[in-house]
Amino acid sequence: IQLVGPEINQFIPNPDSAYEAELERWLIEFLQVNGDLVDVVSFHRYPFPREGINQLPSADDLRRASEEWDETIPYVRALIREHTGRDIPIGVTEANSSWAGSSGGETTLDSHLNAIWWGDSLGRMIREGVFMVQQFAIIGQFGLMDNYNPKPIYYVYKMYQGFGEQRLFASSDVDLVSVYAAERADGALTIMLINRSGETQQVPLTIANGPPPGVAQAWLFDAEHAAEPVDDVQLGAESSLELPPDSMLLLVLASE
To answer: Which uninterrupted H or E stretch holds 157?
Structure first.
C-alpha cells in the first residue's frame, strides 16, 4: 500500500493571496502530521484562469507558463524537507493549463499552443525528478481526445514515447527554446527540443561526451506534423538546427 496526499486542488509557490496561503498551510500541516507515513506528496496545478472563469490566457502568457515548474517543484521539495526531515517523492496528480473548460480558441484546452505548453511542462517535471504526473483528463473537454478523435495534446505523448529513460544534463540559453536529453536502454541518445516561440528559431546544439557524430532520426510535432517522422538530421559535436514555430522536435542518435 502506497499512501498519497494531500491532493490539494491547487498549489502556487510563494503565495500572495489569503486563498493561496491557505493551500500552502494545508500542505504544511499535512506534512507535519503525516510526514512519517506518506509515500508520495501530491498536489494539483492549473495556472489559468488567473481571474474570472471565462478569462483565457494570451498566447504569450501560455508560452511562458511552463517555466513555473522550475520554481514550483523545488519549492515543494524544500517544504517537504523542512517539515518532514526527509525527501519524499512528488506527484502532480492533476494538471492542465486551465481548471475551466474551454475549446475552439488559440489558447483553449484543445489548442496546439496548449499541447506545446504541456510538452514543455512534462520536460521540466522530468528534469526536476517528479515521481508521477497525471494530466486531467483522458476524454472530454480537458482530455487527450473527444469520443473518437485525438486532440493536439495527444501527440505530446507520441513524441515522448521515443524519449529515453535515463536523464542526462541539457540546458538552453535561447529564449523560449527548451532542450531535454535522456539515454535509452539501447544506448541511443534522445534529445527533445521545444520551441515555444511563434517564430522559426535557428539554434545551436552542442553535444559533449555523447555518441560520435552521425545521422539522427527525427520526429516533429508542429502545426503541420502530428508527431511524424521527418528527414534525418546530421549531428556533429556542434550543429545548427532550425525549429519551426510552436514545435517539438525529437532527435534519436544511435550508439555504435
So the answer is: helix 154-160
Is residue 168 within 8 Å of 183, Cβ to Cβ? yes
40-77 per-position pLDDT tens digit: 999 999 999 988 888 999 999 999 999 999 999 999 99
Q: What is the pLDDT of residue 213?
A: 82
User: 206 — phi, psi (to 5°)?
Assistant: -115, 130
Distances (CA, A) of 63 to 21, 103, 198, 242: 26, 18, 9, 19
C-alpha cell at 21: 496561503
For residue 178, what is its C-alpha cell? 527548451
pTM of the complete model: 0.97
Enumerate residues 6+ apart whose C-beta is below 8 A from 1.
none
List Cβ neighbours of 241 (8 Å cut-off, separation of 6 or more). 193, 202, 203, 204, 205, 233, 249
81: CB partners within 8 A, 6+ apart: 87
Question: Partners of 243 in the beta sheet?
Answer: 201
11-18 contacts, C-beta under 8 A, 24 or more apart: 11/43, 11/44, 11/45, 11/72, 11/76, 12/72, 13/68, 13/71, 13/72, 13/75, 13/76, 14/71, 14/75
